[in-house]
């Protein structure tokens, strides 16, 4: 539906004043009917209700009684339930623990990063957390960085199952430690004198090589992403076998990383080292020991800000993070040992459905 939604909404906006004057509110305005025809969508497959916010009569009702798939409008149900059950000021916590002493800038043990389901734990906020740790004196980790995602109990996830577009960031799967939406942003900056476009990327991913440049072409901008002939089949490399049109100027391409299971480890190590931090061990998945000492509590943005992003951008994975957080309210949600209040209960989709269903009733 996305390919015709924008012109259709524009057509509605132009045609609705005339529609409000007409004798039938079921008939589609001609510009809307024309937009549907161009998109090869029959009017019988389309339903719409347009209601003014001032409480007056509906301006348009087209097949208003026909059951349809609510699609992303369903995010409003999750959002409303979250406002009601969690409160608009609710925040998630990502907590940093250690099992060793801190001496002269060296953490003599492991650093544990325990995810609490933060829907927007993006690189800027990770950098802030790392800066706060270094301000406490943590410069060198004489051990491993252990990533703990145990707060969510999730089944295996196939990012390509929804629409076959596994590399689209909107298809990233939920995670209690969701790092930067499991996505990398590729930037292309033309250098006409050198005949290439320079390639930059963020966040830095440990163990990932990305071609530093791609040859320029003089063609039209058009489908510049397809023209790059990017290769994502190797988890250790992103390569470009095509060309980048000079006429495109600077562009950015957000891409879901081809090996999502290793993304958090690669990104956290890359960002830690880029911040000036040192690490003697590896970055790996694991559980936080019961007796680990809390070093830092990094709260998320408040729920109001999170839900603005969820609904303005129709962000699928952020909506799932909120949904799974509701599951932590379920009676059957298991409290993680020594974990404390709500954000540290273990939940999954079953618990979330139970909570939302009870709230709905």
Polypeptide structure, described:
The longest helix has 20 residues, at 2-21. This protein has 3 domains: 2-68, no CATH class; 74-158 and 277-360, D-Ala-D-Ala carboxypeptidase C, peptidase S13 (D-tyrosyl-trna(Tyr) Deacylase, Chain: A), CATH 3.50.80.20; 169-261, no CATH class. Helix content is 30%, strand content 23%. A hairpin with a 2-residue loop joins strand 13 and strand 14 (237-240). The chain has helices at 2-21, 30-38, 75-86, 123-135, 224-228, 260-274, 303-312, 316-326, 349-360; strands at residues 48-50, 60-62, 93-98, 102-103, 106-107, 111-114, 140-141, 145-148, 183-191, 196-202, 209-210, 213-217, 230-234, 237-240, 244-245, 251-256, 278-279, 283-285, 293-299, 334-335, 345-346. By secondary structure, it is an alpha/beta fold.
Summarize the model shown.
By secondary structure, this protein is α/β, with parallel strands linked by helices. The protein is built from nine helices and 21 strands.
């Amino acid at each position: 539906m996305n390919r015709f939604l924008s012109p259709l909404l524009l057509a509605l906006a132009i045609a609705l004043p005339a529609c409000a004057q007409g004798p039938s509110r079921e008939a589609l305005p001609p510009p809307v009917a024309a937009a549907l025809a161009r998109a090869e969508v029959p009017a019988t497959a389309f339903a719409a209700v347009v209601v003014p916010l001032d409480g007056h009569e509906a301006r348009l009702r087209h097949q208003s009684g026909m059951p349809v798939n609510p699609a992303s409008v369903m995010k409003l149900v999750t959002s409303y339930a979250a406002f009601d059950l969690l409160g608009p000021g609710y925040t998630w916590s990502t907590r940093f623990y250690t099992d060793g002493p801190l001496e002269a800038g060296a953490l003599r043990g492991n650093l544990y990063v325990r995810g609490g389901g933060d829907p927007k734990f993006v690189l800027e906020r990770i950098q802030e957390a790392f800066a706060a740790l270094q301000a406490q004196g943590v410069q060198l980790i004489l051990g491993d960085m252990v990533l703990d995602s145990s707060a969510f109990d999730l089944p295996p996830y196939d990012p390509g199952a929804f629409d076959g577009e596994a590399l689209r960031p909107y298809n990233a799967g939920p995670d209690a430690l969701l790092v930067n939406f499991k996505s990398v942003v590729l930037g292309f900056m033309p250098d006409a004198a050198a005949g290439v476009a320079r390639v930059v990327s963020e966040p830095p991913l440990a163990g990932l090589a990305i071609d530093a440049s791609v040859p320029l072409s003089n063609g039209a901008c058009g489908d510049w992403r397809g023209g790059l002939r990017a290769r994502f089949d190797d988890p250790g490399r992103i390569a470009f076998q095509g060309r980048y049109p000079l006429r495109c100027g600077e562009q950015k391409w957000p891409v879901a990383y081809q090996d999502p299971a290793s993304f958090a480890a690669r990104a956290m190590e890359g960002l830690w080292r880029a911040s000036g931090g040192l690490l003697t061990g590896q970055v790996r998945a694991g559980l936080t020991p019961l007796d680990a000492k809390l070093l830092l509590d990094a709260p998320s943005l408040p729920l109001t800000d999170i839900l603005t992003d969820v609904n303005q951008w129709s962000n699928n994975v952020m909506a799932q993070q909120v949904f799974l957080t509701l599951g932590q309210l379920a009676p059957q949600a298991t409290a993680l040992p020594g974990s404390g209040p709500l954000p540290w209960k273990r939940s999954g989709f079953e618990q979330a459905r139970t909570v939302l269903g009870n709230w709905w009733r």
